[in-house]
Each structure stands twice: as C-alpha cells, then as structure tokens.
Design brief:
There is one protein chain. The protein is of the alpha/beta class. The chain has one domain (2-235): Rossmann fold (3-Layer(aba) Sandwich), CATH 3.40.50.620. The chain contains eight helices and nine strands. It has a five-stranded mixed sheet with strand order 4-3-5-7-6. A two-stranded antiparallel sheet has the order 1-2. A two-stranded antiparallel sheet has the order 8-9. Helix 4 packs across helix 5. The chain starts with 16 loop residues before the first strand and ends with a helix. The structure holds zinc ion (2 copies). Residues 7, 9-10, 12, 24-25, 27-28 line the site of one zinc ion (ZN).
C-alpha cells in the first residue's frame, strides 16, 4: 500500500513521489524541487539583492508561474526582490504563444526575465517541433538565455511537472490551446510514468539547437540570416 512506503529522506510513511531518483514524501519532494531551483539560480551567478525581475508566462502556465513567484521570494527573504508578473494570451499555435510572450517583454524595462517552462514541456515541444526545427523556440531550452537586451532564466528547465506534484496548487495539466502540442504532452505523461525520461533527453535539445543561429528579435532558431520568417516580414519596409 502506497501510504506505508517510507520517504528515503525523512523516514516518514507516505512517500509517493519520485524526485531526483528518490522516493519522497510530499514535503521532502517540495524541498528537493526548491533546492534544485536554488541551485540553478546560484549557477546563473545573478545577485538577487534589490533586483527587479519579471516572471513571464502565457495563460496556460499560470499555476506554475504563480508557484515560481512564491519560490523566488522564498529563495532570498532578505533580498528585497521586486517581482513583476507578466501574463500573455494563449494562441492555438504554441510558437505564436511563445513568440508573443517574448516580444511583449520588449515593452518592459527590467532586464531579467524568469520563465516557468519545465522539462516535460520541452520534451513535448521537441517532438512537436521535430518536423520544423527552424522558427521554433527550442533555443529557450537552457538555464540562461539572452534574447535582445533580456536575460531569460529558466530555473525549472530540468524539472518536469511530475516531480512538482508535491505542491498542492499544481494540477500537472498544461492546456496550451495547441491541439497537437497538448496531445503530445498527454501522450508523453501517459506513456512514461518514470520521471527519469524527462532527465535523459535534454542534452539532445542543446545539441540540435547548437546547429542553428537565433533570430535577433525573438530568439527563434534560424538557419541563416538575422531574423526568423515572421520577424523579417514584420520589419521589412512596407509592412
Ligand atoms: Zn520525507
Ligand atoms: Zn523572430
């Protein structure tokens, strides 16, 4: 019976979540995720003291975005961190949703933007984008990314939602509004109950995106030139 299983960390009964390969109780699993976020943030080398940051996400990532806001505050209570949340619309194409999120941030003065994208999102997105890597935002898969004058930080890029289910505010669902993406996301979670799959695939994304350049305006992968298809259309004279 599941509730009799002991947490390998604290020894209490009720271990139900596999996080970092360890079977943990909900409380320890939350600590483990928070610990990973803290470690990632310190790897970025950014001093959060009196810093103004943006946490930006499309509607469909609202639950995780809000949780990430509270995590960022907890990371450094003395930092007096100033957090602004920017939420953008979902479109029925995931690439449009991400692009409009990134371009929306041009209106903001803050240079540091924290994004809530998780490892399982990127795995689904890799499968989704495999027939057209160009113009995709696989370029975002990394702890730190620069697009234009913004520095994007993704402290959850190596954590799937399935490892975060110890947070009762999360349902674990993502409904992006892109039917194809949503079907792939569901299929992945139904087919692979083992969280390890979400830790083993990521290096391939970085290898793939290293073969491409990035659009100077929105950061999408491009083969050559300076801008992606959509951005070059928008900045061409006569538009
Ligand atoms: Zn525990
Ligand atoms: Zn672009």
């Amino acid at each position: 019976m599941v509730h009799k299983v002991k947490c390998v960390n604290c020894g209490n009964e009720g271990a139900s979540l596999m996080v970092s390969g360890k079977l943990l109780c909900p409380r320890c699993s939350r600590n483990e995720v928070l610990h990973r976020v803290r470690k990632n943030m310190s790897k970025t080398g950014i001093n959060l003291r009196k810093q103004s940051i943006i946490i930006a996400y499309p509607e469909f990532y609202k639950e995780v975005g809000e949780l990430l806001s509270s995590m960022m505050t907890k990371l450094c209570l003395q930092c007096d961190l100033n957090i602004k949340n920017i939420i953008t619309e979902n479109y029925n194409r995931i690439n449009l949703t991400i692009r409009s999120l990134i371009l929306r941030l041009n209106q903001e003065e803050e240079k540091i933007v924290v994004l809530p994208f998780t490892a399982d999102f990127f795995e689904a997105y890799l499968i989704y984008s495999s027939s057209e890597l160009e113009n995709s935002y696989l370029s975002l898969f990394s702890l730190v990314n620069r697009v234009g004058d913004k520095l994007f930080l993704l402290p959850l890029y190596n954590t799937p939602l399935t490892e975060m289910m110890g947070f009762s505010e999360l349902t674990g669902e993502l409904k992006t509004g892109d039917e194809v993406f949503d079907a792939i996301f569901l299929w992945l979670h139904d087919s692979f109950k083992d969280n390890e799959v979400f830790h083993t695939f990521p290096p391939s994304i970085q290898v793939i995106s290293s073969r491409f350049s990035r659009c100077k305006m929105c950061g999408a992968l491009i083969k050559d030139g300076e801008y992606c298809k959509l951005c070059s259309k928008e900045i061409s004279p006569g538009h």
